[in-house]
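Appendix B, Record 12. Input sequence as logged:
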Amino acid sequence: MKTKGCGGALALIAAVVLSSPFWPSMEMSAQSAGPALNGPQFEVDPSWPKPLPERWVTGELGGVCVDANDHIFVLSRANLYPGISEIAQAAPPVMEFDQTGNVVNSWGDRQAMAEQLHGCSFDPQGNIWIAGNGDGFIQKYSRDGKLLLQIGVKGKVDSADGKLKSTFLNASPVSFYSPTQVAVDPANGDLFVSDGYGNKRVVVFDRTGKFLRQWGRQGTTAEAAAGVGGAFVNIVHCVVLGNDGLVYVCDRNGDRIQVFDKTGAFKRNIPTPIVFRAPYTGNGGAGSLAFSRDAAQKYMYIGDFSDKLIRVFDRVSGKELSQFGRPGSHQLGGIASP
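Logged structural output:
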């Protein structure tokens, strides 16, 4: 992948290439969905990644994150298209790529991990945290795949009967309902979990997994339009800690990033209004978030789930600067689920 301008958040940019079940096969530059303004510009590298070994084929990709060595870790689900599994092999749950696109390591036990792997992030010690839509737990692994900590129990969610498709409780101090991402506070190791597809909250634990606090509830589109903090329209889809000490949370179907301090006090909204559909429809305008890698984190890169593009914002002002990508999953620059 190649970038122009200020250094970008490699994890999210990699996700542009990797978000579909297919590896790119057509040389085509990413096209902006709107006029480029003052934000950094990106183009897809058609040589990245290199062909996967051993007839591996990815399913849906549930997350992309980058370690301190700029190695790119990709989460692959096992949901291959019908007939593919008969002639190829599902890629391992976690694949590690170097900057040139070679697979340098892979690992993961699907029986121990969530079926719908969702979101990954690294802590300052180099461990990787993985969440999972469709289950009730999060996991901490060493970068080479050793399970170090699990919060929650596989197969049991925070619902009325502990099962999926039951009424969410938004209450458990020991389990989740389809959590989507984990962010680790570098100051003290506290864990911030976006929970998720079932629950509508952010949950905080200490580094050992002890429950500390939570905030958030089911919201309405009217509340989202009015800017009410802590009310999530549907899916709490990401959580990221900024260098400014604030907590940035994707209110995906509320078409906004909600910003809190670490205690859960609401600070502000960053609206991400979708362009090609009516507000609060489709998959939502705030699907994923990453910051530029400069110390000031000048730019935010936000994946728009409805319009299928990446939008670049100035972090401080919340002003949108530029966009890139295009809908689709069969050619370079195409974005399926950013």
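Confidence is low (pLDDT under 50) at residues 1-33.
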